[in-house]
From TrEMBL:
Gene3D superfamilies: Glycosidases. It holds the Pfam family GHL5. It comes from Palleronia pontilimi. The lineage of its organism: Bacteria, Pseudomonadati, Pseudomonadota, Alphaproteobacteria, Rhodobacterales. This is Uncharacterized protein. InterPro entries: GH, GHL5.
Length: 789
């Protein structure tokens, strides 16, 4: 049956939706209340054999488009459509259906549309309108729940009810059901994961298989290797953003229509989305679903499957935390959303118009739909960026009411209503120049009514470099804050932001060379440091978080290959990471940096010399690419690479760096080099924290924390904590020379006197035979003693 016969409009249902929209707008107590209800009607929905669609379309009012020029466009592939193929040319049947409108909202309904599922593809759709010159324009669905070809292509109608009905963790959620929504509290600790670099496959399905493997090994009591150990011992997994991101600035698009279209057919060149991104370059549109780059099958069910394997983990369920980015949009968002979504440009791209009730409601609805995939918690990126312009005061104000609405959102999975745990990254008054000094990292905590709301703490924020001499004592005032008020902070120094910043530090600074013999060793140990981890897990309050790429001693950086205009500048800023993360041997490995080698950078030295010139020229020319190419051609002796540099050459080199680095950062590359002593110690440390969750609390009057004085060229922290008869004493050598021989249990620390102490944890380098007595502590060494445990 041809599409126009299979799919028919139901104008009665569409007009009913428009009428309901009218009622809500006219009778709701506030405009925001109305738009919150209307937002539930937007996007594509499946109801038996009926599909209905809603769009917020103020641009149609702006352009004075009459009803007769607006249609729902339905597209269905005539032949097989394989979402696992890299490229295919597909002919789509097309039909146009009438719509019903009320002011800035447009609705449509259709019978006979095919909805997508795990096993089958669905029909695609978007809204279209025709102008006075008979030119057609598309309005994409920002609330779509399946975007196989990204946020800049028509959406796929998807059967969410079937996806939810078939989820493998229904029992987990059903057990939480009650008269009131269940409230998730904080986890004991968190593993932060970037899906594309976490496994060789780089997809959610591949990551799910990794946790399935772990489940079977744990359930079977099998021995654990370092690959197992770096994933285990965590109460929760936090994924870096899994939303659709930007696409290639100069194309081609993943959905590219070719010539020869007719009213009933359209030929499309389809490319499987393949961008590389660290996750934070979002366009707001499509935030309710999953980035197709992360989907091995092209089906959003993969996120549900991942949630299920975590929730069904043997011994105890693991929580899933999703990282959401609603504080800004990349400039590409201007091509995906109407202009009413935006409030003006910022350093990232565009500010969102949070005070527009429709925008406010739609973004909250995107959040609701995303978390309904089955997340137990939500991390909000850049909460300090949620601002609105107060015209009366002529200043930007933080939209704390919006942040409260985010954490008040009630989700529903498997019939169970619940509220997730929330953590906010908020460094206000950033970007004020003195923000590192001025921020108290408690702005959201102090304003929210939920006692379980968290923020990233000061040792977790971006600019932390624990491999520079003097770091720990320079942060002493912050550490004292952690001790006093850190119970609701995320703790630890290794995350996607700190590790990235670490790779941008000038190696000529006063680097702690005791951490390793090479810059690579220094960086790896700085962010996977046994003493720092011991301090975080056995002494400091809060919820510890580790970044997989750090604990796996894999590489990391600002990974984004979509830029054309500023790609060379971004790579110039990242070039210094070559000194920290790539040595001659790693560069020479045949599988590493293949693209750059093909461009003439056969050795690390070749690339390093080019990278010495590039950042300087970007600076002195004020990023004039033509001038940069000209100056590079004048270097003597000539640089490796092209015989004659051109602007396209520079852009090609920048793209090659990003693509090569993305592959180089994959955790699978570093597994064989992991030290089982280190991975086993880190796992035992995490187990210790899980056995003593009370350590999350702020230090009490009977607790003690200090550093040994006089310093004498080394920083050694001591911590004594007590809870209901349980005592934990931790001593860690953070940096500097050897301590000299001393007995840790004979120091004049309140609470330490008396017998009964046992050595519970020793960092690598301290033999298992040590139980107490005199010892010499060196950089990155530490001990944990317990009593009454």
């Amino acid at each position: 049956m041809i599409l126009s016969e299979r799919v028919t409009a139901d104008t009665g249902v569409a007009e009913g939706l428009a009428h309901k929209c009218r009622q809500l707008l006219n009778t709701s107590e506030t405009a925001f209340d109305a738009h919150m209800a209307i937002a539930r009607m937007l996007g594509g929905h499946v109801d038996g054999d009926m599909a209905h669609f809603g769009f917020w379309t103020p641009e149609l009012l702006d352009a004075r488009v009459p009803d007769g020029d607006i249609f729902l466009e339905v597209l269905s592939p005539k032949g097989p459509l394989d979402l696992t193929r890299s490229h295919q040319d597909v002919t789509f049947e097309r039909t146009f259906l009438p719509v019903a409108r009320y002011e800035a909202h447009t609705f449509a309904a259709a019978k006979g549309m095919r909805a997508g599922s795990r096993e089958q593809g669905g029909d695609f759709y978007c809204l279209v309108w025709r102008d006075a010159q008979d030119t057609w324009h598309r309005i994409l669905d920002p609330l779509a729940m399946s975007l196989p070809f990204g946020a800049f292509a028509p959406a796929e109608l998807y059967d969410l009810a079937q996806m939810q009905k078939r989820r493998g963790d229904r029992a987990y959620f059903e057990a939480l059901a009650g008269d009131a929504p269940h409230k998730f509290g904080p986890p004991v600790n968190i593993l932060q994961i970037h899906v594309p670099t976490a496994t060789a496959g780089g997809t959610l399905a591949s990551l799910t298989r990794q946790f399935e493997r772990l489940s079977e090994r744990v359930a079977g009591g099998l021995s654990l290797d370092p690959l197992d150990q770096i994933f285990l011992g965590y109460d929760a997994v936090q994924l870096l953003p899994v939303e659709p991101t930007t696409t290639y600035e100069v194309g081609p698009g993943f959905w590219h229509e070719t010539a020869g279209d007719t009213e009933s057919e359209v030929k499309v060149s389809l490319t499987r989305p393949d961008t590389t991104n660290w996750g934070y370059d979002i366009v707001i549109s499509g935030m309710g679903t999953v980035n197709p780059v992360l989907l091995e099958s092209g089906r959003p069910d993969e996120l549900v499957a991942f949630a299920s394997v975590l929730h069904n983990f043997p011994t105890r369920p693991k929580k899933l935390i999703l990282d959401v980015v609603f504080g800004h949009s990349d400039n590409q968002g201007l091509d995906a959303l109407n202009s009413h979504f935006f409030a003006g440009p910022n350093m990232y791209g565009q500010n969102m118009d949070y005070k527009n009730p429709a925008v406010r409601a739609i973004m909250l609805e995107m959040q609701r739909r995303k978390v309904d995939f089955g997340a137990d918690g939500v991390r909000v990126d850049g909460a300090q960026d949620f601002k609105w312009w107060d015209a009366g005061a002529q200043m930007l104000r933080h939209d704390d009411e919006y942040l409260q609405l985010m954490s008040d959102m009630v989700q529903e999975v498997a019939g169970t209503r619940y509220r997730p745990w929330f953590v906010f990254e908020d460094g206000r008054p950033w970007p004020q120049e003195d923000w590192e000094l001025s921020s108290n990292y408690r702005a959201v905590i102090e304003k929210q009514h939920d006692p379980d709301v968290f923020q990233w703490g000061p040792l977790t924020f971006a600019h932390n470099t624990p491999f520079i001499y003097g770091f720990w004592l320079s942060k002493w005032w912050r550490i004292k804050e952690v001790l006093a008020v850190g119970a609701n902070w995320i703790s630890g120094t290794a995350n996607h932001d700190t590790l990235r910043r670490g790779t941008q530090v000038n190696p000529k600074l006063n680097i702690n060379t005791r951490l390793g013999d090479t810059q690579m060793e220094i960086l790896e140990k700085a962010y996977d440091n046994p003493a720092v981890s011991m301090l975080t897990y056995a002494a400091l309050p809060g919820v510890p978080m580790d970044f997989l790429n750090a604990t796996a001693r894999a590489n990391w950086g600002f990974i984004r290959n979509q830029d054309d205009k500023y790609g060379v500048k971004v790579v110039a800023e990242e070039a210094i990471s070559l000194k920290w993360q790539v040595d001659e041997y790693e560069y020479s490995v045949p599988g590493n940096f293949k693209r750059l080698k093909d461009l003439g950078y056969e050795t690390r030295g070749d690339l390093a010399r080019f990278f010495e010139f590039l950042p300087a020229l970007v600076e002195v020319t004020d990023y004039d690419l033509d001038h940069i190419a000209k100056l590079l051609n004048g270097v003597e002796p000539a640089l490796a690479g092209p015989d004659h540099f051109t602007v396209p050459d520079l852009k090609q080199i920048a793209r090659a760096w990003m693509d090569d680095m993305h592959e180089y950062c994959n955790v699978s590359n570093s597994i064989s080099a992991l030290d089982p002593t280190q991975t086993e110690f880190m796992l035992s440390l995490r187990s210790f924290r899980r056995d003593n969750p009370w350590l999350r609390d702020n230090l009490g009057p009977d607790d003690h924390f200090d550093y040994i004085q006089p310093v004498d060229g080394r920083t050694i922290f001591t911590s004594y904590r007590k809870h209901e008869g349980r005592e934990v004493y931790c001593i860690t050598h953070m940096e500097g020379g050897p301590s000299g021989e001393f007995d840790p249990l004979r120091l004049p620390i309140p609470g330490l006197k008396g017998a009964g102490w046992s050595c519970a944890l020793r960092t690598p380098g301290i033999g298992g035979e040590y139980v107490s007595g005199p010892i010499v502590l060196r950089d990155s060494m530490g001990l944990v003693f317990t009593r009454g445990i």
